Amino acid sequence: MKTFLKILKWIGILLLIAVLGIFISGYVLYNKKYTAPYPDIRASTDSAVIAHGKHLVYYSAHCVDCHFKPGDSLGAVNGEEVGLAGGAFPFVFPGGKFYSANISSDPEFGIGNIPDSALARAFRYGVKPDGSVLAPFMEMQNLSDEDLTAIISFLRTLPPVKYKVPDNELNLLGKAIMAFFIRPEGPKGTPPKEMKPDTTVAYGEYLVTVVSNCKGCHTYRNPNTGAYEGELLAGGPFEPVHGDPTKMIVTPNLTPDPETGHIYHWDYNQFRTRFTQGVLVKETVMPWGSFKHLDSIEVKAIWKYLHTVPPVHKVCSPPVQDIKDWDKVAKGES
Ligand code: HEC
Ligand code: HEC
């Protein structure tokens, strides 16, 4: 018995050392610097390019949804062209808080002094201008060269806003996660030079998985690391409702499953109309305000693509549920 207790004690001490070691190295490594190539992308002053960039930033790629500044939330929700001085709200996860960046042209607080190629590298390779890893909120690695150029060109036209976004606040767990689980992510394959907007399934896939990233919210992800764990577009618990941590916001299953696919019984008109209606569920996080401005080519392409993904049998709705059902919902049993 005595030796047993002794062994137990030593195992306990070793475990403690291991856990401490992980946290301490996390603390040291979380701000690690990475290298990645600088894409050959240069901002353009062509008005058509800038106009396309504006459509992406405010509408289809909904940058505004995360990059408005505190106080402008109503305008952003309504799809208005509010400023992009960042810090909208803290993105809270068990490891701490992230704040979006000021992406106005201010040289001190915004991106005015960051070269085009460094911005392009951040989008495409997930490496910030200072070499640290960009937290994976923006999955735009596979944007076409043309769309990336358009976005940066438009950002250059934004008036400077002198607003300092709060620094990210990471606790030890957050630092360990950043050090060990979050790596800069590059593109899958070679990103296209251009993607011509049309109503093809291919363009729909580009919108759903890259530009508008419907995939990012409508696929179940690990709440700590953001890693994809659910089946593509089959929905599931997304995050606690802002201001009410007892409730969970749940995204619907967008796959064409006859029984559980949320839009399986919708016709195209219903789908098109839904995108003109804005927010209907007040707790939602879907950027309906931006998506109100999607044009009919975009909505058609998205509709077509959603009908080609593998159907997944998974019950997700209703959109707001008690958090204690989290596990059941995650497993698709609720
Ligand atoms: C889902 C929310 C979200 C969306 C949508 C989003 N961003 Fe971000 N963005 C963030 C967060 C959060 C950070 C800070 C991440 C960090 O600190 O690692 C950030 C950082 C950035 C940076 C900072 C890079 C640097 O200098 O450190 C730029 C530039 C940027 N975003 C531009 C954009 C553009 C342009 C779009 C749309 C095409 C966009 N973002 C869409 C949340 C978002
Ligand atoms: C930031 C997360 C987020 C993104 C991005 C997002 N959604 Fe959603 N979506 C949600 C949430 C949460 C709900 C449930 C609440 C609601 O209906 O607004 C939802 C609901 C829906 C619904 C059901 C609406 C209804 O009234 O029944 C459809 C359809 C939908 N999303 C399609 C899409 C498509 C298509 C895209 C990409 C163009 C997309 N979503 C992008 C989070 C998101």
Structural features:
334 residues; 6 strands; three-stranded antiparallel beta sheet; mainly alpha; binds heme C; 2 domains; 13 helices
Describe the structure.
By secondary structure, this protein is mainly alpha-helical. The chain has 2 domains: 47-180, no CATH class; 201-330, no CATH class. The protein is 37% helix and 7% strand. The chain contains 13 helices and 6 strands. The strands form 2 sheets. The chain has a 3-stranded antiparallel sheet with strand order 1-2-3. β1 and β2 form a beta hairpin. α2 (47-60) crosses α6 (145-155). The radius of gyration is 22 Å and the shape is globular. The termini are far apart. 36% of the residues are buried. The mean pLDDT is 92. Residues 56-57, 61-63, 65-67, 91, 98, 100-101, 103, 111, 114, 119, 122, 128-129, 134-135, 137-138, 140, 151, 168 line the site of one heme C.
Given the helix and strand composition, which structural class is it?
A: mainly alpha
Q: Number of domains in the coordinates? A: 2
- Ligands, ions, cofactors: heme C
Contiguous low-pLDDT stretches (5 residues minimum) are none
**What series of H and E elements makes up the topology?**
HHHHEEHHEHHHEEHHHEH
Query: Strand order, biggest sheet?
Result: 1-2-3
Number of continuous helical runs:
13
- Terminal residue distance: 46 Å
Q: Tell me about the largest β-sheet.
A: 3 strands, antiparallel
What sort of overall outline do the alpha carbons produce when their principal axes are compared?
globular
The averaged pLDDT comes out at 92
How many strands?
6
Strand content of the residues, in percent? Answer: 5-15%
Give the % helix.
Answer: 25-40%
Radius of gyration (Å):
22 Å
